[in-house]
Each structure stands twice: as structure tokens, then as C-alpha cells.
Write a structure and sequence with these properties.
two-stranded antiparallel ribbon, 9 strands, five-stranded antiparallel beta sheet, elongated, Heat Shock Protein 90, single chain, Arc Repressor Mutant, subunit A
Amino acid sequence: MDRYDDRDDIRTNLIESYERLIAFIEKHLDDKFYIEGTQRIDVRNKIARELCANLLIHREFSNPYPAKLIIEKNCMRTENANRAKMIGTIDINTYEPYPKNPKIAKFFKEIGLADELGSGVRNMVKYTKIYSGGVPILKEDDIFRTIIPLGDNEETLNSLSSIGADKTPINADKTPINNLNIEDLIIEYLQQNKYITNNIVKEKFDLKDTKAKTILRSLVAKNILISEGANKNRKYKLNKK
């Protein structure tokens, strides 16, 4: 748990990257026998296909954070630089995907390494249940994390929920605040104040600049806030409509 048994530092084009990622998973995870209809299905590679394609297609390439695929005793997970539309764990049942690099996604689809937008998550859910009895966990932030459980026991699944957990912000009174509640607290603040800025959000909730901007952009995208001004003079107000 505290060292690498094996690693592959991949610095090549996307097609070769995909092939080496798949080979790495095949090397370290067993396949399990499964019949779908009358045909034998390679469940491990079904999961690997979606996981690796998503890792390469949806990366925020302007961010220097290295994309990672990590295989541990109880899970396989990916970490990817991301331009977030929300903060927190994604509800797989209501998840609505959006293209982050549509040209790359179209190219992968044309060569048969990806399917229609959104089908990858559905396939990961379907085949992870078959492979391990678990359900994938998707966490969106400045780093997007996808976690595939490799065990079906309750203790393992509970431990997965803490992987990639964000730093818990605190307010001026040092009271812990759950990240998922920050949007509600911003709305409460604006019910008593005319506007809020990125700096106010940073200081009030002890957030990094990029995370504060992400939360405010998310509220604007939901039409809860309206944005006025530009750059350092930008202010956010409640959308009264």
C-alpha cells in the first residue's frame, strides 16, 4: 500500500496510450468467466475499455496534472485534470454527461474505441456489478476521479467512499462545512448581501481559487446566479427570475 509494485509512465500519442493502459489492466487483473446470451464476454476488458477511453478523452489538457490509472487491492481508479461543472460525488442514476473534448471523443468513436456520449458510464455500472458486485463511484472536482471497486463486501465499498475526498473547508467560526453544502451557503449569503465575489467565497470557505470559481460557475450554469463584470471586478448576484 505504500509503494509501487509496477508502473508504466506513458508519454506517447492517445492511441498507443490507450493500448498500454489496457495492457496494464490485463496484466494485473484477472478476467472472470461470464456468458451474455450465448457469447462469452470479457467483463474485465469491458470495464477497462470505458475507463481508459474516458481517461484519455475527457482530460483537461491545459492542466499539467498527470492523468493516472491506479490499481490497488480493493479498487481500480483513475484521476484526471478536469474543468468541473459541479463539486462532489455524481449520482449515476441522474448523471447527464457533457462533451469536454468533442473532437477527440468523435475520433475515438470513429475508430471503435468509444460509443455514444453517456454509454460509457452505463457500461461501467453494468459490468462492474457483474465483475465485483460493486458500483462505480464518480467524483467531480478540479480532479475527476472514477473508482471501480474490486470487491463486493460492504467494508470494502464503504472504504471506497473516502478515496479522493476533498479537503473540508471551514468558515470564520472554524465550523466544518461539507463541500456539497457550499452552494446552499452561498445562496444564504446572497439573501442577506447584494453580491458575492470569488475572493469572498475563497476566504469564507477556505477554498482554493480554482474551486471557488468552479462552484460559482456551477451556480451560474444552473441559472441560480448571474455574473456581472469581468476578471477581478466580477460579481455574482442572485437571479431573481
